[in-house]
Design goal:
167 residues; alpha+beta
Amino acid sequence: MSAPAVLVGVDIVEAGRLDRATGRGGETLARHVATAAERSLGAGRAAFSVKESLVKAVGGRPPGFTWHDFEAVTAPAAPWAEPLLDEAAGELAASTGLPLTAGAAYAIRGASARAALARLSPGTPATVAAAARWGEGHGVFVSVAVVYAAPPVRQGNSQRSSQGEES
């Protein structure tokens, strides 16, 4: 059995830059970057850096991109993805000196899901999901994300893809 394909993205940003952006943008920036569900969970300034690592993993901002293409979810990441994320977070922590102690699973939808699928499993029906870890210290914020494809989630007699389309 071959290992599943994954996409990895990393973001390292000066913490002061995040502070200045959130200070200037306030609630408007928060609504632009984080979904209502994420804001209710207190997504805070981490949302921008973590979503930047997700953008890098899927290959950039495709036409039709919105920050809401990525949403933190309470469901766990795929069990096989956790050890891979642990390894990537450990490597990044070792190279930056910062432990990556916070984390979440992410749903990926819309244009970003289509871009990820084009790289992960072209022509194969699948959903796209991700897991991320992050940490901060010494004036920087560091995040790493692992994006992966999984078979579509079945709902009754229909099948819903990560793009929210029924087939």
